[in-house]
């Protein structure tokens, strides 16, 4: 007896497997950022998940991390990270700026390196304030001439990009005080602070509730749809198998009915043959 699953059922199962493979390929993920420290990767991951983008962190061979999202979400992920200025800029410390390299530096070079180190340190400090997205400090320290007795004051310009829900004006006096006390010969009147609210930054009111679904972090509102998507292929397979079993049972019953009719017909023909032989 032939196997009822070798023909039509095998074709249906192969088709379903192909469809599932296509769905899996459609969910392929792409790295939005690589070569991140674990802290930077965590910040990127939190921002994407709060923005409703499914993301995951993966370690690399060089002890760095990469953050992956679905190919369809790459543009949204980049926009979210750009709004929050992530990954955060890496600043140079004074120790790194004046790291010994075996070469003798000129006084002008030493002065420029010192100013650059101060700018990096102050920018890093200001960026640590809650709600600050990006901070830049530009310092002007006039060169001193031994023959010129005129005192030229230093000046500084501070750029701060902050979250739109934060009233940064309240922090301007503290920012000025921090910069003034960090630069020699700088007065409060020579420090300018420019504030700019970030566009499209995520706020607490727009955060999406998250939950775990088979180990993946997803929006809580999408779990029902995910369960349906997960169940539909298996329901189709089950329905197909039930239909094939039913068709096989019907076919077997029909074959038995035909066999019973043939047996009955042969039995009816046997007495008629014997009567004909007796009459002869």
UniProtKB/TrEMBL annotation:
<comment type="similarity">
    <text>Belongs to the YscJ lipoprotein family.</text>
</comment>
<protein>
    <recommendedName>
        <fullName>Lipoprotein</fullName>
    </recommendedName>
</protein>
<dbReference type="InterPro" id="IPR006182">
    <property type="entry name" value="FliF_N_dom"/>
</dbReference>
<keyword id="KW-0812">Transmembrane</keyword>
<feature type="domain" description="Flagellar M-ring N-terminal">
    <location>
        <begin position="31"/>
        <end position="193"/>
    </location>
</feature>
<dbReference type="GO" id="GO:0009279">
    <property type="term" value="C:cell outer membrane"/>
</dbReference>
<dbReference type="Pfam" id="PF01514">
    <property type="entry name" value="YscJ_FliF"/>
</dbReference>
<feature type="transmembrane region" description="Helical">
    <location>
        <begin position="225"/>
        <end position="258"/>
    </location>
</feature>
<keyword id="KW-0564">Palmitate</keyword>
<dbReference type="GO" id="GO:0009306">
    <property type="term" value="P:protein secretion"/>
</dbReference>
<keyword id="KW-0449">Lipoprotein</keyword>
<keyword id="KW-0732">Signal</keyword>
<keyword id="KW-0472">Membrane</keyword>
<dbReference type="InterPro" id="IPR045851">
    <property type="entry name" value="AMP-bd_C_sf"/>
</dbReference>
<dbReference type="InterPro" id="IPR043427">
    <property type="entry name" value="YscJ/FliF"/>
</dbReference>
<keyword id="KW-0998">Cell outer membrane</keyword>
<keyword id="KW-1133">Transmembrane helix</keyword>
<dbReference type="InterPro" id="IPR003282">
    <property type="entry name" value="T3SS_SctJ"/>
</dbReference>
């Amino acid at each position: 007896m032939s196997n009822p699953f070798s023909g039509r059922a095998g074709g249906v199962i192969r088709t379903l497997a192909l469809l599932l493979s296509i769905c899996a390929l459609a969910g392929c993920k792409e790295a939005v950022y690589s070569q991140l420290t674990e802290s930077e990767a965590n910040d990127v991951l939190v921002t994407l998940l709060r923005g409703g983008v499914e993301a995951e962190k993966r370690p690399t061979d060089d002890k760095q991390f990469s953050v992956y999202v679905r190919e369809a979400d790459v543009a949204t992920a980049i926009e979210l990270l750009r709004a929050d200025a992530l990954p955060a800029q890496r600043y140079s410390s004074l120790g790194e700026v004046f790291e010994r390299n075996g070469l003798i530096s000129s006084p002008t070079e030493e002065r420029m390196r010192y100013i650059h180190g101060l700018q990096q340190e102050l920018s890093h400090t200001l960026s640590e304030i809650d709600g600050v997205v990006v901070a830049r400090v530009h310092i002007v320290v006039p060169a001193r001439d031994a023959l010129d007795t005129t005192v030229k004051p230093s000046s500084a310009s501070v750029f701060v990009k902050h979250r739109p829900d934060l009233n940064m004006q309240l922090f301007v006096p503290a920012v000025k005080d921090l910069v003034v006390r960090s630069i020699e010969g700088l007065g409060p009147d020579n420090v300018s602070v420019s504030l700019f609210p970030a566009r499209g930054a995520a706020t607490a009111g727009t955060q999406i509730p998250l939950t775990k679904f088979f180990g993946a972090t997803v929006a809580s509102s999408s779990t029902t749809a995910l369960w349906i998507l997960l169940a539909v292929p298996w329901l189709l397979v089950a329905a197909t198998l039930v239909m094939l079993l039913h068709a096989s049972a019907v076919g077997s019953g029909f074959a038995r009915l035909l066999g019973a009719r043939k047996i009955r017909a042969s039995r009816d023909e046997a007495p008629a043959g014997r009567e004909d032989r007796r009459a002869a």
